[in-house]
Design brief:
Elements (H helix, E strand, L loop, with lengths): L21 H25 L6 H34 L23
Helix pairs in contact: 1-2
Length: 109
Amino acid sequence: MEDRCLTCGLALERGERSDFWIGAYVFNLVAGEVLAIGIPIVWMIASSPHQPWTAIEIVAAALCVVLPFLFFPFSRTLWLAWDLSFRPIEPGDTGRLADVNAPRRLEEK
């Protein structure tokens, strides 16, 4: 993963090297496992009264393993967005732009 956003220059690591991403790992695990159990539950309800139990068990086990890996990049981005909502941008967080919300000016040649 890049150190800074390529568009706005926002630092993707906001000071805490090891502890900051623990929240992203937890978010990833919880979201992945909630989806991994929710999808089979919906499948069981939709296919009742004759559920294909073997297929449901295989799909549920596969989802428990695969979803956290697929969701990982999104969980880091969502965790950063959540962190920004509680802890606004600080002076060391931006690189190229002083204000990420400011309109961009076209540079003269």
